[in-house]
Amino acid sequence: MKQALLELREKALQELKSALEKRSAEELEHFRVKYLGRKGLLSEYLSKLPTLSPEERPAIGKLVNEIKGELTGGFEEAKASLERPKVVAPLTDISLPGCLPSIGRSHPLVQTIQDIKDIFARMGFQVVSGPEVELEYFNFESLNIPPDHPSRDDFDTFYISDDVLLRSQTSTVQIRVMQKQKAPIRIIAPGKVFRPDTVDARHSFMFHQIEGLMVEEGVNFGHLKGVLHIFAQTYFGPDTRMRFRPSFFPFTEPSAEVEISCTLCKGHGCSVCGGSGWIEILGAGMVHPNVFKAVGYDPEQYTGFAFGMGVERIAMLKYGIDDIRLFFENDVRFLSQF
Ligand code: DAH
Asked: What whole-number distance in Å separates Cα of residue 135 and Cα of residue 161?
């Protein structure tokens, strides 16, 4: 009987192995019923025990139980393994370099704004901001641009209602700051502005400006030149030259367009500067007395200068970028270069 039991064990283990290899739940169940079921082969052996002699009985009984234990364990394991999805272990080459997670970085325009802020902060300018959705008054009237003034066209924008609009210039922040604070004032105000321009390599319906304002007793055009000179040389390099050309802005008098020597050809003349060797980078001037009157400052007591620059333009000059759309297309190949 012992021999028969050992053979049964051998056969059972083989059947279990085969069911597992085929991943056949059916064969496995068949195995269970055949060997471990209530009417299975092992039960049959157990029921035969009383017919054995008292000397044989304990050893055979023990053997049957051992085999039963072994087959039950094997069955449970096989069942669990069939229930698990089959995982094909990938061939891993542990000598390959690891996958570096890609680390984000700030957008080139954010970096440019930060660099410019740093330069002015060192000259005592405080960074402030104002709303992008703005009252018409702050974008126009208070800046000495009355309703029918032709220069409204230059600062045209998107209207939300008759007197609410998307600001088309950060000069709005000059008024908001002076309404709240008394002189002396030294601020710069970076932010988004909006204009109904058709998008092309040089235009976008949304872009960024940085406004500057300094108001104190005795501030003059020389201070304006000095501050902007330090800015240009710090940001574009010590060889950068600067020139002022007469211009017109309703909120400054006198007004100027500020140009720097071309960052590409260093002033010799190239396609970027149109052969002139000079490139315009910002508008500036002495704060118009009407602007002071709009905020209740006495223009006889205070003077001040203001300037406004386009951030995209500055970044394009600094990095040699020839299309403003690159900033807004979210192409990582472009953005990751900064
Ligand atoms: N706001 C002007 C623009 O959007 C730029 C500007 C020019 C701002 C002269 C100023 C300034 O503060 O004094 O074109």
From this structure: 10
How far apart CA 286 and CA 306 sit, in angstroms, is: 6
What CATH number has the domain spanning 108-335?
3.30.930.10
Amino acid making up residue 211: E
Pocket probe mutation, ligand 1, options 307, 309, 314, max atoms within 8 Å of Cβ = 307
SS3 120: helix
Q: Which residues contact 275 (CB under 8 A, 6 or more apart)?
A: 269
Which residue minimizes the CA distance to atom 6 of ligand 1? 308
Q: Whose CA is nearest to atom 5 of ligand 1?
A: 308
Taking the C-alpha atoms of residue 176 and residue 142, their distance in angstroms, rounded to an integer, is: 10
Q: What is the pLDDT along the chain (338 residues), one digit of tens a residue?
A: 889 889 989 999 999 898 888 888 898 889 899 999 999 988 888 888 888 888 888 889 898 899 999 999 999 998 888 888 776 777 888 888 888 888 889 999 999 999 999 999 999 999 999 999 999 999 999 999 999 999 899 999 999 999 999 999 999 999 999 999 999 999 999 999 999 999 999 999 999 999 999 999 999 999 999 999 999 999 999 999 999 999 999 999 999 999 999 988 888 988 888 899 999 999 999 999 999 999 999 999 999 999 999 999 999 999 999 999 999 999 999 999 99
Parts of the chain belonging to CATH 3.30.930.10: 108-335
The H-assigned helical ranges of 158-277 are 172-180, 221-236
Q: Would you tell me how many other CB atoms lie within 10 Å of the CB of residue 188? A: 27
